[in-house]
Structures are given as structure tokens and as C-alpha cells.
Amino acid sequence: ARVVVLVSGTGSLMRALLEATKDPDYPVRVVAVGADREGVEGLTHAENEGVPTFAHRLGDYASREEWDGALAESCAAYEPDLVVSAGFMKLVGERFLARFSGRYLNSHPALLPSFPGMHGVRDALDYGVRVTGCTLFVVDAGVDTGPILAQRAVEVRSDDDEHGLHERIKAVERRLLVETLQDLARHGWTVRGRKVSIGVTTN
Ligand code: GRF
């Protein structure tokens, strides 16, 4: 499967996926990496690995819709089977979802529907849950509300702070992303009863 990954920061999830794709038997290829601004670590890493990159800064556009359209165009140029948000900190709009609805996945560092939004790790910690985790889901028009594809639990430790817990979640999240994308590429998936399948990369 051809995958475009969207990042905003360090891109550690994207790096883990890139590593996995070095195995010729892994049925996913990262065909491009995009970001919401130039110069983020994730883009630099992708460039060093010879992966095409693009960036669209919201402030460079007259409207959010135009930014959204430009982002969709850049993704579409690589003819992806899937677009994966791996730490992409912007909400896409209707134009993007019109093109990639059902094929745009996001990884969230909490067990949705608990603790959606920008501070899922902090909110779980502040709430005092004993178990949190990560969720891979299909993005819909809401915020972290789309159909869930896969989840994995992570214990919360009494001495955890937000950073420490998030790093532990990210270690699990990387494996969840790599393993789930492998299954999706090989077997397709069912979203709320609807079979969705994507092309498998012919090696
Ligand atoms: C991940 O925990 C992701 O779920 C959240 O931001 C983090 C991205 O980390 N949205 P990185 O940029 O991939 O290191």
C-alpha cells in the first residue's frame, strides 16, 4: 500500500514506519511525508531517507479552506492508498476529507473515546486513570471521533509525569501503527460494518 504520512514535530511514529518499510516483505511504502510547516525534524529525517516531502503552513494561505485544499492536492499527487497522521497537529477540512474520507488514519495517545483532543496524555494523567493507551482510527469530520481500527493499553505509573507517560505510550503507538498498517495492507478492514480495502504494494 502507498502511504503518505503527515507530521508536525519529531516524527518518531513516522520514523518507526519508515524503518518497517525497509523490509521488502512489509506491504507498505511511505511515498511522501508532509508537514504543516517547513523544517520540522520529521521532514528532515524523511529527506535524509530519500523520501519526498512537502509542507503547507496555514499562515501562508488566505483561508483555512485554501490551506486544506493545498494539503489535499499535495497528498493526492502521490496517489496514496492511505494518509496517516502521525503527530500531525492540524485538523483537516472538508476538501481533504472529501478526497481521503475512509482512508485518512490518525494515531491518538489515549484510549478513545476517552481523552480526545490536543492533551490526551495530560488529561488521562490528571484524571487519575490507571490504564491509558493509544488508538488508531479513521478520521471523520469530528475531533478524534472516527471509527476505531486498533487500540493498545499502557499502564499509568504513580511517578509518571506527562512527558514520561507520553514517551511510554509512543513506544507502544509505534508498534500499533506498524502492525496495524501491515494488517490493513494485507487484509483490508471493516469500518462500522463497511469493508474497506486498499491496494497491496506489489513488491
Ligand atoms: C504521538 O503520540 C501522536 O499520537 C500524537 O503526537 C505524538 C507524535 O509524536 N498526536 P511524534 O511527532 O511522532 O514523535
UniProtKB/TrEMBL annotation:
Origin superkingdom: Bacteria
UniProt: (6R)-10-formyltetrahydrofolate binding residues: R64, M89, K90, L91, V92, N106
GO molecular function, one term: IMP cyclohydrolase activity
A cellular component term, taken from the record's GO annotations: cytosol
Keywords: Hydrolase, Multifunctional enzyme, Purine biosynthesis, Transferase
Active site, per annotation: H108
Transmembrane segments: none
Site note Raises pKa of active site His, residues: D144
GO process annotations (BP): 'de novo' IMP biosynthetic process
Similarity section: Belongs to the GART family. Belongs to the PurH family.
Domain statement: The IMP cyclohydrolase activity resides in the N-terminal region.
Function comment: Catalyzes the transfer of a formyl group from 10-formyltetrahydrofolate to 5-phospho-ribosyl-glycinamide (GAR), producing 5-phospho-ribosyl-N-formylglycinamide (FGAR) and tetrahydrofolate.
Name of protein: Bifunctional purine biosynthesis protein PurH
Native source species: Halosaccharopolyspora lacisalsi
Taxonomy of the source species: Bacteria, Bacillati, Actinomycetota, Actinomycetes, Pseudonocardiales
Name of the coding gene: purH
Included range, full protein: 35 to 237 of 757
